[in-house]
Amino acid sequence: MQLMQDIQPEYTVRASLRQWSAELAGESVVLNFDDGMYYSLNPIGARIWQLIQDPHKVSDLLATLVNEYDVEVARCESDLIALLTELRGLSLVEVQDATGS
Fold this sequence. Notes:
By secondary structure, the protein is of the alpha+beta class. It has 3 helices and 6 strands, in the order E-E-E-E-H-E-H-H-E. Strands 5-1-6 form a 3-stranded antiparallel β-sheet. Strands 2-3-4 form a 3-stranded antiparallel β-sheet. Helix 2 packs across helix 3. The longest helix is centred in the last third of the chain and has 17 residues, at 73-89.
């Protein structure tokens, strides 16, 4: 069994194509087609979800969020990577490393 590598700033992420999502009252609700489960994201998670509908480097997501919210870079990076890691574990995002794999 291969372990997943930690998500790095140079990695590219995008929402999985095997999901459906909608915005409801500033939050996002995501249906995972693979497990049939619904997941909800708070307003900041919903903003990240909105951004990753197209592929983005994690470092670009970080720059956007730091620009939009009053948050320290280190805290934002930690929280962003934690959320992306959780979403990857739920098969809701696709992650490519710098080599494209």
